Amino acid sequence: MRTIFSSLVLFLTTIASALAQDATHNYPTKTVRMIVPFAPGGATDVLARIVSQKLYERWGQIVLADNRVGASGNIGAEFVAKSAAPDGYTLLVAGAPHAINMSLFNNLRYDLARDLAPISSIAAFPSLIAVHPSVPVKSIKDLIALAKSRPGEINFGSAGNGSPNHLSMELFKTMAKVSMTHIPYKGGSGQMVSDLLAGQVQLASMGLPPAMPYVKSGRLRVIAVTSAKRSPLLADAPTVAESGLPGYEVNSWYGVFAPPALSKELQAKINADVVAVLGNADLKERLVSLGAEPQPMTPDEFGRFVRDDIAKWSKVVKESGARVD
Fold first, then answer.
1. pTM score, two decimals?
2. Is 325 contained in some domain?
C-alpha cells in the first residue's frame, strides 16, 4: 500500500510540475495587469505605459496599465503584495518612493523587500539641483559656501515632506554639513516650481523633464545633476559627486514587481522578457529623451538593489526627522 501511495504522489507531483512548466512556457495567455500606484502622467505611469506597449508587442497579449492611487503609492503596492494572485497576471511598477516609504510611514501593511517578488529594474531618472538666477551661486561649492555663511537662511522647495526630492536635499545637507530650510508644498510640484521661478524659494532638486524648459529659457540655473555620471541632456552640468561631495548619488528608479508567491520559473520568464524589451532601440531612445537611463537587472540583483536603497533612505529619513503619519 505504501508503495502504491508513494507512486501516486510521485505521479501527481510529476503532472503538477509538467503543468507548471507548460504554463510558464505559454505565459501569458490573457491580459496582464500592470498596477501603477500613482496618477496618470507621472514618471511611474509614463514608464509603465512605455514598457507595457513593448511587452504587448512581444507577448501578443494586452498589458493594461491600471492606476490604483493613494497613500503615496502604498495602496497599489499593498494590493499586489497582499491580494493579487501569484500567477504573473498582476504586476506592479514601484520605485524609489516606495523604498523611502518603508521608513517614512509607521504603519505600512507590506514590506517592499519581503512581500513583493523583484522582477527587474526598468530605469533610473537623475534629478538636477537648480537655483533661481538671483541666487549668487554657480556651483555646488558656491552653494555650500553660501549655506555655511548663512545657516538656515537658504530655503529649498519640494513636492512634499518625505518626497524623493526633499530627501535628496536632506542627504545633501547631511553630507555637506550645512543648514538650509525646507519648504514643502502639497498637491505636487506645480506650485513649488511657480514659486521657484518667482524667487519665493531659492533652490530645489527637480526631475529633468519638468525642469528642462525653464533651464533652456534661462529662468533657472542648473548647478549640478544628482546621478553618479553626467546626463546626456545636460552634458555641461557636473554631478554633485564631482563638485565636492564624493559619494553623493540620487536617482529616482522604477522597476517591476510581482506577488511574493510567484514561482521562480515564472519570475525568470518575466524577467527575461522585461530585460529583452529594455534592450529595444526605440524604447532606449524614448527613455533617454525623458532623461532616464535603462537599468535592466536579474531578480537577485534587483532584490539586493531594493534592500540597499531602503537602507540608504532609512538613514536619511531618520536624520531629517521626516514623517507623514
1. 0.87
2. no
